Every structure is written in C-alpha cells, then in structure tokens.
C-alpha cells in the first residue's frame, strides 16, 4: 500500500514518540515479563507466559503499524499557510446556526484525529463540508446528531 497519509508536524512527532516508546520501554518490559513467566515452570499451562507472549505480539503489531504510517506520512507544514480559506491543518471556529453554540476544531489526518481534543479527520463529514470554504460561509454537515448547519467564524493556521 503506497497511499500517502497527510498529517501535521505535531501528529508526525506524536507517532514517532509512540513508536520509540514501543521499541524501547515496552519491548524491554514484555521481555522481562516473559523471562519471569518462564521461571514459573511448564509453559503449556502457564497463563502469565501466554499473557506476556500475547502482549509481545500486540506490541510488535503496533510497531509495524506505526512504522508503516510514518513511512507513508506526508507532513504538511501548517505554519506556512495563511488566509481565511479552510485547508488541511486549519484550526476553525464554527457556530452551530440553530443552537448558537461555538466550537473550535483542527482539521488533521486520519491517523492523528482525536475528537476529545477537537482534532477531526480531514475525511470526516464536518471537515469535508468545511474544506475549501471561507470565513463567513455557512455549511451543512451530517453529524451523529443529524444534519447541522454551521457558520465559519474564524480560520487560523498554527
């Protein structure tokens, strides 16, 4: 799979840090757990050993996944962008036209999306509705709570 994965510099660095932790700290810990479990005797009926081996498999799978994502990363330098047009990496303040509430979201790559921290995937319905629009525009987006209409209040690149 050679598809490029757009991401911000911060998202790239976060993935790289997570990979480093898995390769160093987590690998060492699980190796130690396996050695301790081996000391408990018969491996065929050793639940600690089985759990440690399963954890080791998960760590190795996560390492392969992160290495693949980092290899396919297309880092976009958001700080070099400006203007009032919504683009990848933009931090956008929107107002729910009906509810009158405001929220601020950053449009990021799929692998760095985190709705709890207001980082939405560029492929999400809301981001797709916003991209290409300008401050003052009104957009309609299908959300989990139904169709919503938003006005773009501000666009910032940081």
List keywords for this structure.
single chain, 158 residues, alpha/beta, Helix Hairpins, Chitinase A, domain 3, 2 domains, 7 strands, elongated
Q: Residue share in helices? A: 25-40%
CATH class descriptor of the largest domain:
Alpha Beta
Q: Please identify which CATH superfamily of the largest domain we are dealing with.
A: Transcription elongation factor, GreA/GreB, C-terminal domain
- Strand arrangement within the widest β-sheet reads 5-4-3-7-6
**Mind telling me the C-alpha Rg?**
21 Å
Write the element-wise H/E pattern from the N-terminal end onward.
Answer: EHHEEEEHEE
Structural class: alpha/beta
List segments where confidence is low: pLDDT < 50 over at least 5 consecutive residues: none
**Whole-number total of structural domains:** 2
Task: Note the total helix count.
Answer: 3
Give your account of this protein's structure.
The structure is a single chain. This protein is α/β, with parallel strands linked by helices and 158 residues long. It folds into 2 domains: 5-76, Helix Hairpins (Orthogonal Bundle), CATH 1.10.287.180; 78-156, Transcription elongation factor, GreA/GreB, C-terminal domain (Chitinase A, domain 3, Roll). The chain has helices spanning 9-38, 47-71, 125-130, and strands at 5-8, 73-76, 91-96, 102-108, 119-121, 138-143, 146-156. A 5-stranded mixed sheet has the order 5-4-3-7-6. Strands 1-2 form a two-stranded parallel sheet. α1 runs antiparallel to α2. The mean pLDDT is 92.
């Amino acid at each position: 799979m050679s598809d490029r994965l757009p991401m911000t510099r911060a998202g790239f660095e976060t993935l790289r840090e997570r990979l480093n932790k898995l390769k160093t700290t987590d690998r060492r810990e699980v190796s130690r757990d396996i050695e301790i479990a081996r000391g408990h005797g018969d491996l065929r009926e050793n639940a600690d050993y089985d759990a440690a081996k399963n954890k080791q498999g998960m760590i190795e799978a996560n390492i392969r996944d992160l290495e693949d994502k980092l290899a396919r990363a297309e880092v976009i330098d958001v700080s070099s962008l400006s203007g009032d047009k919504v683009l990848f990496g933009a931090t956008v303040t929107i107002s729910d036209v009906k509810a009158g509430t405001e929220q601020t979201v950053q449009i990021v790559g799929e692998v760095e999306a985190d709705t709890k921290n207001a980082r939405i995937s560029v492929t999400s319905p809301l981001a797709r509705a916003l991209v290409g629009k300008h401050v003052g525009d009104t957009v309609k987006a299908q959300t989990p709570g139904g169709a919503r209409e938003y006005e773009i209040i501000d666009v910032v690149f940081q």
